[in-house]
Structures are given as structure tokens and as C-alpha cells.
């Protein structure tokens, strides 16, 4: 029994070997045919070492191949590879279902666990890597996508592919329903809340709520949250000397934590002003009003001078300060 | 001063009304003068000159209008811009600015006061800042009180956020538009308060002026409908707002369509659709209110549901259908990028490239508004707490403007007025309660008389009864705050004083540079004027043919047209992206490729700005990546941004920079012969002071261009494009020449010369020997 199994295994190996041997002799048209057939079924072809050498490196070629070298096995713990794989899949799908789909361009994937020899031969020691193998010649330096600079969003990959191969791919992203869904859920919550509390809608007429909401929005905007949203600065930064910088040194930039501090300072000044005004206009106990007025004055004076001194540290050569240097 | 008007018939100086109006008049006059004078730094330091870029076009257009008359101005086809396309100026400008200064010039001339139109253009914005202060006073007075109005007027007169766009010489649309904006809002609030057709019609006239002056009128035509919509949501519908809005909308619509540049946009683009929708909604609500008074309740409820559903469906289908059919244009990119903040960066590099379209840091907010940025929320707080119809407006104004200012630095300009209004309210509120010791009146001089719609809610919250009870016991305890009172007043006055000092410092240091004349200060404080821009433009105007075409990056188009009066290819009116991309492509290709583009575009001269000698950071090499990006957007095959970076993704001009960069036209034109220049003893030759490196490609010759002029500090460099027959063709070795030289010796001598005659040789005329004279 064992012998037969062994025999079977050996014969299988032999057959596989001969098949590979046969494939080596495949002509160009046959290879293109096989690749096209496979690509119609699966936009991203999965290659192991042999197939890679066969189809991607084999000469002559009249097609370009975009290969992503990656490590998708869970044991490799490559989180970024998943994202890259999704984006790559998106580009390949867009190409598969585009008008200009042809056998001039194929998308392939080599997983480290399936073809470590490929990684070795190309001297790759990181993943994911996107490489373009042109129809003629070897890949040059620009045929590797610079992930650090360009990123691997599907649109960027498509632009890079267009640069390298002159084939334009319009990326069709399946529309992102999550935002819409969140909106619908939020609306449903609001409507549900209103329905539940339909007998008591007073909170809608509560001016304090509205005023607080407006103030919160104002503080968010005047502290530059929109800048953070658009530019995406770091939360805070370590300086060369190892200290942690909360405040960006120049007037052109800001850290996220810095904007929070500024929002707090502004809010404290506003609170102080309101306390002062209320202390003088309310007709309560004198002692309480006195304390309020002093607290208000202290808040305004201290926090305003604090924000002025932060401002001063950013604006080089600004001459004025108040209380604090 | 509606609050303090008394019935006393005497209006002399001794009566309180007289004193108060004199006081108001004096304060406003002083605010006007302070605002005017603090905007004169640039004139005093330099001269009465038009600043920056866009003002030069406005000035040129104004001068053209003054010279040729208004109708010729409207029909003006400018063949000196956007060569070879040209530009229809009359149909693509907001003519309000030119009309304003043109009519001032006309009136002064009628009065026999000869003033050059340039001086009017230079001083227009400072004068209008005073008018803005007055408009702000009136608006704040309508919303809160006269005292708050005076504060607001003083704030707006000196606040840097507004000065940045209205210093003397900054002859731009914004200078008059902020006045028009505030005045329109004042008239609108007035018409909402009174419900009179007169004020609404005045508001639409003022809106007309605003439309003629600035593209920012879209903000008004969206904010006012938003106000109405909010009022409807709050259940504050009244016939006052109905009258005000319907009058305003119809008149304003018709008026705005009279501006050639606006044309049919108000009924065809999405930006204006909100106003139309609110107009329909308001009418629907008015009809419903009427029917409610006629029908029974059950009938009305049934009718209401049916009508609301059909109306909503019809409106939705109509909007979708019209947009789909292309009758209503979708949002234009510039406005769209305000909502989808990442949009411009990806799709419209030409918008993203302008520095004033960047988002705003907190530093800019503080820089432009100082204490007001921290105190205007107080005014917002009190406006919401004591809300009425017109305060809803100011709240919406503040919240929307602060959002837009966060998205774009440039829109700080629309935030500044409302910040001044609310800051004025905050400070006047504070001073009112701290200065008036003996008067125990309600602090918020607000009149909540128009809260009649929600009267029963009001009665629940109204604290009037409580207050009245407090009045007598308060008199006993009033002197409790004695010392603290004066402490608070002194401290707040100190802060306000710091505000004014800050404003002056910022105005003087940041906003008062004409940017076409630069100044540098040496160690001992002496000043050196760098007048290279005008030097170069003057050279162009004197030494080139009248129809010479000058290629430069679009930033300098208006200046070349205005100062040198030469034809430009692209300018600051960036309406044609592909044309700009073509210029960008020429600048970022190598010399040969650039030459073919330049001959195709008939370019005679190329002008580049180079700051490497004096360390001027706004030069063309620093802007260069935008040229590449814009060119890449249109010509992705030829130009690739990645080619201009090093392998590590850096943009550097030294020897490690990418070869594409080191050989592109812009690099060569900037650094031509720069390698020979040794600036001082500490640095090697070819040291670029702006980028603090030694340049990478020092030794090169230009084949297709020749240096025509370089200004004193190398700030502006002008090159002449050679004609095809004059450039030195590269020498090809004899062995590689396809056309072999024939070995036939061809003499250049003519048959006459071949004889070897001497020119002008005295010719001996042979004759007969004279016979011997008979003696």
C-alpha cells in the first residue's frame, strides 16, 4: 500500500516535472493564450517561482506584467500587505472589466511563501513591492513603484501603470456606502430620539445647547482642526535632543496636540469673559459675584497671555508679550 | 441709538441726544482716520504704487476705461493677453472696482481737482475701509447696540485680517467688496427688522454693487437664504421676512444678471439654486399659513401632507432633471473644493497651487485677529442666548464664515467683519455692566419684542419677573464689586491696547510690502531698496518691439502687461489650464523640446524670476514643482513629476539633484552664468542663497536662447529666443555628416573682381599729347 502511494507520488512528480518541461518549450502565442485565459477568469494571477520564471521572465514577450510581491499569509503579520492587495485587486479588476482590456498587460501576484526563490533572485527583502516587467528588456529602477512617495492607492497604482505602459486604467472603486450608511443610521437615531421624546421637545429650544455647539465648532475651526484634517500633521514630535515638542517651531505648521491646547486656551478666555460679564450683571450674593469676577479676570489674563507667549514662540521676532514671556 | 432716543425736543449740544450723536460721529471719524492712516505704511516707506499682481490688471483696466470710456471698456478685447487667444476683458471682469475709481476720478475732474487715476487706485482701499467701519457700526447697532457698534467699527478699522487686503496700493476687488458685503448685510437686517419694501430694495441695490465688485457675492446669496431657512425651521415665519426676502431675491436676481460676467449664472448654476429653493419654500409656507387661516384643522392637516409630499417630489425631480439635462451647471471646482476639502489637491492643481487657497493654521487666526479670536465666541454666546430674528443671521454668518476661513486662508477676509461685530458685542457687554454702576438695567440692551411667535415658551424662560424683584435689593449690594470693577476695566483696556499695538505691528511688518519693490535691511539698520522688477519691466518696455511676446510663469503676466505693456502668454486670470500647462511644459522640458514649444507659441522673450543671489524665496525655482504638476496634468506622457525628484524623493538643485531637473529650461535660465558668480568670500561660486546649496549644473551654454537682460540683483532675468537661422547649430564631426562637402572650390569673385583690379585706381585717360604751344 505504501509502495503504491510512493509510486503514485513519484509518478505525479514526474508528470508535473514533464509538464513543466513541456511548458518551458511553450511558444509565445501559447503563453499569451494561457495568460489571457487565466486573466479572464481571475484578474490577478497567482504565480509561484516556476510560473513566475515561465511567464514573467520568459522571453520573448510582447506583454507587460505588473507583479506585486507580497506576503499574505497570516503568520507573516503584514497588515499593510492586505491593504495593498485590496488596492491592487481593484486596479486589476478595473483593467479586466475596462473597454480596452487586452493581452498586453497582466496583473500577477507572488506570495513570499509560494515563491521565496523569486524574492531572493530579485533581492527583495520587504513586502509589498510593485514591479513592472516590460515587454522588452529588464525592469529598470523606475519600474518599481515608489510606495514611500506615491503610496499604493489604486489611483496611484493606475497612474504609475499608465506612466510605465501607456495603458490608461480608470479605477472603478465600488462606491463606499459606509459613509452613507453612517449618515442614515445617524438620521434614524435622531429621528428615533425625536419620536421617543416627542412629548418633550424642549431640548431643541434650549439655547444653551445650541450656544455650546456653536462655540465648540468655532473653537475647532479657529484652532486649525481643518488644517489638521487636510494636511494630517503628526500628533506631536520628538526633537533631536529626545524631548517631546508639543508646539511646532515655525508659523507654517502645527501639531495636533498643539491645536487642542490652543482650543483650550481660547475656551478658557471665553469662559473668563462670560464669568466676568455674568458676575457684574447677575444680582446674586456679592461674595459669589466677587469670586466669579476674579476667577474670570484671572482666566482671561492668564490664558490670553499664555496663548500670546505660544504665538510669540512661533513668530520669530514678535516683540510683544503680556504677563508671561 | 434706538435705545437711547428720548422724547426731549431739544437737540442741541447740551441735550443727551446731541452729545451722543457727536460722540458717535467723533468715534467713527477717528476710526476712519486710524484705519486710513495705518494703511499708509507702504506709501510712506516706498511710494504711491500699485502692489502685487492682480491689482496691476485692475489698474490697467481702470486706466483703459478712463481713457476710452465705459462702453469701450465693456467691449474691450485684449489681444495682449493669453497670446494667441486674447481675452475678452469686458465680459470676464467684475467691473465694480473700475467703475468706482473711474467715477471718483470723473467727479474730481468735474470739480477741477486734477488727480492721476493711479493715486485714486492706490488710495481707494484705505478710503473704503472707513466706509466699511461705518457699515459695520450700523450692522452691529441693528443687531445689538450702538456701543457695540462703535467697538466693532474701531475693531474693523485696524484689524489685520482686513488690512491684509486693503492697504494703500492693494487695488483689488476685496477692498471695496467688504464694504459692499457689510452694507448689504446691514440693509438686509434692517429690512428683516422693519419688513419694509424700501429697505429690501436698498439691500438688493447694495447686493447689485457687491455682484459688480467681487465673486464672493455668492456668499451673500447663500447666506441670506440660509437665514430665511433657519428662521422658518425655528418657526419664526412672519410677513416681515416674507416681504424682505421676496423683494430682495427678485430684485437682486434681476440686478445681478446685468453684470456681463455673471450673466445667466444666477438661474443656471448650482451655487445660486439654494436661493431659488428658499424663495419657493417661503412662498409655499406663506400659502400654507394663509390656508390655515381659511380651512379647518382636519382639512388642513390632510391638505398639508399631500401638498408637502407632492411639492418635495416635484422640486427634487425638477432639480435632478435640470442638472441631468445640463441646464443647471453643477458646482464649479473652486466652490466645490470648499466642501470636499481634498478635491482641489487631487483634481485642480492650479487652485491648489495658490498659497492663499491653503487651509488656515491657528497661528494665522491669531495673527490676523489677535484677542478677537478668543473673545468673539463670547459675542456668539450672547447672541444665541438672547436670540431674535437678526441675531440668527449674525450667528449663521459667524458659523459659516469660520468654517470657510478654516478651509482657505483667503476667506479669513469674510470672517474678519463678523469677528469684529461679535467681538464688539462681547466687549461692549463687558464694559456696559462694569462702567454703569448705578444703572441696574438689563444688561443685554436687546429688544426681544419680536419674540411674539413663541410667546408661551418665552414666558417659561423669561426672567424678567425675577429681575424686577432683584432691582431694589441689588441697589444695596451694588458697591460690592468696587475694586474688582476697576481692576477688570484696567486689565481689559490693557488687552485692547495690546490689540491695537499688535495690529499696527502686523500691518507694518507683514502687510505693507508692495512686493514689486523689495527692501532689505543691513546690520546698521540702513535700508536698501531692490527695484529689480520695475527695472526689468522698464527694460522690456524700452528695448523690445511693441508686439514682442514674453513668456513667463502666470504669476507675472499682469505685471508684464501693466508695467512693460508687452504681450503675455498666460496671466493671473487662470482661465485656460491647458495654455498654462503648455507654458509649464516648456519650462520643465529640456532646451530643445522647449524651443519647439516656444516657436509654436511665437515667443520672443522668456522672463524668469531668480532669487538665488539675494535670497528671495518666492522665485521660480521654488514654484517650479507646480509648473511640473500642472504640465503633468495635461501632458502626462512627456512630463513626470517623479523625474524631478532624486531617488529619495527630494527636490534639490545641487549636484545630487535629478538630471531632468538640472537640464530643464527653467533651471538653465535661472542659473545661466550663475556658476561664475562668487557672491562673497565664505561661499564657493555658484552658491544659491535661497536654497543654501551650490548648484549642481554650473557649466552650460544656451543654444536656443541668449541672455538679453539681467537686473542688478539678478532677480529678473530676460532671455531672447533666437530665430531658427541664428542659433549655433551643434558641430557634427565630418565623418558623421550625411551631406558631404563637395570638393569643388568655388570662388566668390565676380568676373570683374577676378581680373584683380584695384578699386578706385586712378584711371589714366589716354589722349593725344598736346601740341606744343606756339611760343
UniProtKB/TrEMBL annotation, chain A:
Ribonucleoprotein as UniProt keyword: no
InterPro entries per UniProt: OligosaccharylTrfase_OST3/OST6 (IPR021149), Thioredoxin-like_sf (IPR036249)
Keyword Ligase carried by entry: no
SUPFAM superfamilies: Thioredoxin-like
Entry keyword set: Disulfide bond, Endoplasmic reticulum, Magnesium, Membrane, Signal, Transmembrane, Transmembrane helix, Transport
Family affiliation: Belongs to the OST3/OST6 family.
Protein name stated in the entry: Tumor suppressor candidate 3
Protein species of origin: Halocaridina rubra
Automatic annotation (TrEMBL), chain B:
Membrane topology label: Multi-pass membrane protein
Annotated keywords: Endoplasmic reticulum, Glycoprotein, Glycosyltransferase, Magnesium, Manganese, Membrane, Metal-binding, Transferase, Transmembrane, Transmembrane helix
Cofactor: Mg(2+); Mn(2+)
Boundaries of every STT3/PglB/AglB core domain copy: 549-606
InterPro entries: Oligo_trans_STT3 (IPR003674), STT3-PglB_core (IPR048999), STT3_N (IPR048307)
Pathway recorded for this protein: Protein modification; protein glycosylation
Biased composition (Basic residues): 744-758
Source domain of life: Eukaryota
Taxonomic source organism: Halocaridina rubra (Hawaiian red shrimp)
Gene: STT3B
GO MF, any single term: metal ion binding
Entry's Gene Ontology BP terms: post-translational protein modification; protein N-linked glycosylation via asparagine
Name assigned to this protein: dolichyl-diphosphooligosaccharide--protein glycotransferase
Compositionally biased spans, kind Basic and acidic residues: 456-465
EC number(s) given by UniProt: 2.4.99.18
Record-annotated Oligosaccharyl transferase STT3 N-terminal domain positions: 23-422
Gene Ontology CC entries for this record: oligosaccharyltransferase complex
Catalytic activity line of the entry: a di-trans,poly-cis-dolichyl diphosphooligosaccharide + L-asparaginyl-[protein] = N(4)-(oligosaccharide-(1->4)-N-acetyl-beta-D-glucosaminyl-(1->4)-N-acetyl-beta-D-glucosaminyl)-L-asparaginyl-[protein] + a di-trans,poly-cis-dolichyl diphosphate + H(+)
Main location: endoplasmic reticulum
UniProt family annotation: Belongs to the STT3 family.
Localization (cell): Endoplasmic reticulum membrane
Stretches that traverse the bilayer: 21-44, 88-108, 120-138, 144-163, 175-201, 207-234, 241-261, 273-291, 303-327, 362-384, 391-409, 476-499
Region (Disordered): 438-473, 744-775
Amino acid at each position: 500500500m505504501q509502495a503504491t502511494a510512493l509510486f503514485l507520488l513519484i509518478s505525479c512528480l514526474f508528470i508535473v516535472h514533464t509538464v513543466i518541461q513541456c511548458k518551458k518549450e511553450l511558444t509565445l502565442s501559447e503563453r499569451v493564450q494561457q495568460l489571457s485565459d487565466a486573466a479572464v477568469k481571475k484578474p490577478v494571477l497567482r504565480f509561484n517561482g516556476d510560473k513566475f520564471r515561465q511567464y514573467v521572465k520568459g522571453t520573448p514577450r510582447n506583454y507587460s506584467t505588473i507583479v506585486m510581491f507580497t506576503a499574505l499569509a497570516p503568520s507573516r503579520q503584514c497588515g499593510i500587505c492586505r491593504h495593498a492587495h485590496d488596492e491592487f485587486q481593484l486596479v486589476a479588476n478595473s483593467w479586466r472589466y475596462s473597454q480596452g482590456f487586452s493581452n498586453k498587460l497582466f496583473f500577477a501576484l507572488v506570495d513570499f511563501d509560494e515563491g521565496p526563490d523569486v524574492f531572493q533572485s530579485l533581492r527583495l527583502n520587504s513586502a509589498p513591492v510593485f514591479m513592472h516587467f516590460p515587454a522588452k528588456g529588464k525592469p529598470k529602477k523606475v519600474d518599481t513603484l515608489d510606495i514611500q512617495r506615491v503610496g499604493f492607492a489604486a489611483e496611484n497604482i493606475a497612474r504609475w501603470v499608465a506612466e510605465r505602459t501607456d495603458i490608461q486604467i480608470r479605477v472603478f472603486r465600488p462606491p463606499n456606502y459606509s459613509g452613507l450608511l453612517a449618515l442614515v443610521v445617524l438620521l434614524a437615531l435622531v429621528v428615533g430620539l425625536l419620536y421617543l421624546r416627542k412629548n418633550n421637545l424642549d431640548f431643541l429650544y434650549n439655547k444653551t445647547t445650541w450656544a455650546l455647539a456653536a462655540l465648540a465648532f468655532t473653537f475647532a475651526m479657529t484652532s486649525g482642526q481643518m488644517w489638521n484634517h487636510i494636511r494630517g500633521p503628526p500628533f506631536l514630535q520628538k526633537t533631536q535632543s529626545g524631548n517631546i515638542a508639543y508646539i511646532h517651531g515655525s508659523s507654517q505648521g502645527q501639531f495636533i496636540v498643539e491645536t487642542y491646547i490652543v482650543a483650550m486656551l481660547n475656551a478658557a478666555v471665553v469662559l473668563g469673559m462670560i464669568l466676568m460679564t455674568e458676575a457684574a450683571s447677575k444680582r446674586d450674593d456679592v461674595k459669589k459675584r466677587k469670586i466669579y469676577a476674579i476667577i474670570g479676570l484671572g482666566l482671561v489674563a492668564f490664558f490670553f497671555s499664555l496663548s500670546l507667549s505660544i504665538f510669540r514662540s512661533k513668530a520669530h521676532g514678535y516683540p510683544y508679550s503680556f504677563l508671561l514671556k | 441709538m434706538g435705545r437711547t432716543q428720548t422724547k426731549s425736543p431739544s437737540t442741541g449740544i447740551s441735550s443727551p441726544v446731541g452729545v451722543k450723536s457727536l460722540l458717535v460721529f467723533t468715534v467713527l471719524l477717528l476710526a476712519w482716520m486710524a484705519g486710513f492712516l495705518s494703511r499708509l505704511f507702504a506709501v510712506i516707506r516706498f511710494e504711491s504704487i500699485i502692489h502685487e499682481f492682480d491689482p496691476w490688471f485692475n489698474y490697467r483696466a481702470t486706466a483703459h476705461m478712463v481713457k476710452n470710456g465705459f462702453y469701450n471698456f465693456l467691449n474691450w478685447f485684449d489681444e495682449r493677453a493669453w497670446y494667441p487667444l486674447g481675452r475678452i476683458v469686458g465680459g470676464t471682469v467684475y467691473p465694480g472696482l473700475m467703475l468706482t475709481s473711474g467715477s471718483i476720478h470723473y467727479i474730481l475732474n468735474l470739480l477741477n481737482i486734477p488727480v492721476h487715476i493711479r493715486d485714486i487706485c492706490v488710495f481707494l482701499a484705505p478710503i473704503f475701509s472707513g466706509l466699511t467701519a461705518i457699515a459695520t457700526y450700523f450692522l452691529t447697532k441693528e443687531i445689538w447696540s450702538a456701543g457695540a457698534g462703535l467697538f466693532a467699527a474701531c475693531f474693523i478699522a485696524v484689524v489685520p485680517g482686513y488690512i491684509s487686503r486693503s492697504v494703500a496700493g492693494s487695488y483689488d476687488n476685496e477692498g471695496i467688496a467688504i464694504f459692499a458685503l457689510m452694507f448689504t448685510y446691514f440693509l438686509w437686517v434692517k429690512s428683516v427688522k422693519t419688513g419694509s419694501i424700501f429697505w429690501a430694495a436698498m439691500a438688493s441695490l447694495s447686493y447689485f454693487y457687491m455682484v459688480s465688485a467681487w465673486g464672493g457675492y455668492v456668499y451673500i446669496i447663500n447666506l441670506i437664504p440660509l437665514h430665511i431657512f433657519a428662521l422658518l425651521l425655528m418657526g419664526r415665519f412672519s410677513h416681515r421676512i416674507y416681504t424682505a426676502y421676496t423683494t430682495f431675491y427678485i430684485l437682486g436676481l434681476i440686478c445681478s444678471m446685468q453684470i456681463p460676467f455673471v450673466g445667466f449664472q444666477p438661474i443656471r448654476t448650482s451655487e445660486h439654486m439654494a436661493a431659488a429653493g428658499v424663495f419657493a419654500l417661503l412662498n409655499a409656507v406663506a400659502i400654507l399659513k394663509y390656508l390655515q387661516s381659511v380651512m379647518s384643522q382636519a382639512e388642513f392637516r390632510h391638505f398639508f401632507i399631500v401638498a408637502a409630499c407632492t411639492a418635495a417630489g416635484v422640486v427634487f425631480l425638477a432639480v435632478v432633471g435640470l442638472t441631468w439635462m445640463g441646464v443647471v451647471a453643477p458646482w464649479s471646482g473652486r466652490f466645490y473644493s470648499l466642501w470636499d476639502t481634498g478635491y482641489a489637491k487631487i483634481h485642480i492643481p492650479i487652485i491648489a497651487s495658490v498659497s492663499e487657497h491653503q487651509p488656515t493654521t491657528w497661528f494665522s487666526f491669531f495673527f490676523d485677529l489677535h484677542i478677537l479670536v478668543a473673545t468673539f465666541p463670547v459675542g456668539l454666546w450672547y447672541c444665541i442666548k438672547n436670540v431674535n430674528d437678526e441675531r440668527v443671521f449674525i450667528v449663521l454668518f459667524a458659523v459659516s464664515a469660520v468654517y470657510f476661513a478654516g478651509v482657505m486662508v483667503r476667506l479669513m477676509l469674510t470672517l474678519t467683519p463678523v469677528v469684529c461685530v461679535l467681538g464688539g458685542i462681547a466687549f461692549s457687554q463687558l464694559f456696559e455692566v462694569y462702567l454703569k454702576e448705578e444703572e441696574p438695567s438689563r444688561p443685554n440692551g436687546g429688544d426681544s419684542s419680536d419674540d411674539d411667535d413663541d410667546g408661551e415658551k418665552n414666558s417659561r424662560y423669561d426672567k424678567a419677573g425675577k429681575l424686577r424683584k432683584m432691582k431694589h435689593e441689588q441697589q444695596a449690594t451694588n458697591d460690592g464689586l468696587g475694586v474688582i470693577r476697576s481692576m477688570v476695566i484696567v486689565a481689559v483696556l490693557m488687552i485692547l491696547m495690546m490689540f491695537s499695538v499688535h495690529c499696527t505691528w502686523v500691518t507694518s511688518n507683514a502687510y505693507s510690502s508692495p512686493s514689486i519693490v523689495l527692501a532689505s535691511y543691513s546690520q546698521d539698520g540702513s535700508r536698501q531698496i531692490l527695484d529689480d522688477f520695475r527695472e526689468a519691466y522698464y527694460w522690456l518696455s524700452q528695448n523690445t518691439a511693441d508686439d514682442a511676446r514674453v513668456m513667463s510663469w502666470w504669476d507675472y503676466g499682469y505685471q508684464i502687461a501693466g508695467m512693460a505693456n508687452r504681450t503675455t502668454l498666460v496671466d493671473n486670470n487662470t482661465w485656460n489650464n491647458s495654455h498654462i500647462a503648455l507654458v509649464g511644459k516648456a519650462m520643465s522640458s529640456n532646451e530643445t523640446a522647449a524651443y519647439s514649444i516656444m516657436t509654436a507659441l511665437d515667443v520672443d522673450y522668456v522672463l524668469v524670476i531668480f532669487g538665488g543671489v539675494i535670497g528671495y524665496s518666492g522665485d521660480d525655482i521654488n514654484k517650479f514643482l507646480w509648473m511640473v504638476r500642472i504640465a503633468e496634468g495635461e501632458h502626462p506622457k512627456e512630463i513626470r513629476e517623479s523625474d524631478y525628484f532624486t531617488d529619495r524623493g527630494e527636490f534639490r538643485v545641487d549636484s545630487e539633484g535629478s538630471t531632468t531637473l538640472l537640464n530643464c529650461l527653467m533651471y538653465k535660465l535661472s542659473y545661466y552664468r550663475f556658476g561664475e558668480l562668487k557672491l562673497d568670500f565664505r561661499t564657493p561660486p555658484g552658491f544659491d542663497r535661497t536654497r543654501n546649496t551650490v548648484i549642481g549644473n554650473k557649466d552650460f551654454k544656451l543654444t536656443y536662447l541668449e541672455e538679453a537682460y539681467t537686473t542688478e540683483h539678478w532677480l529678473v532675468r530676460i532671455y531672447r529666443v533666437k530665430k531658427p537661422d541664428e542659433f549655433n547649430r551643434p558641430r557634427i564631426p565630418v565623418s558623421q555628416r550625411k551631406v558631404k562637402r563637395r570638393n569643388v572650390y568655388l570662388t566668390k569673385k565676380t568676373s570683374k573682381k577676378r581680373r584683380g583690379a584695384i578699386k578706385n585706381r586712378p584711371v589714366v585717360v589716354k589722349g593725344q599729347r598736346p601740341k606744343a604751344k606756339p611760343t
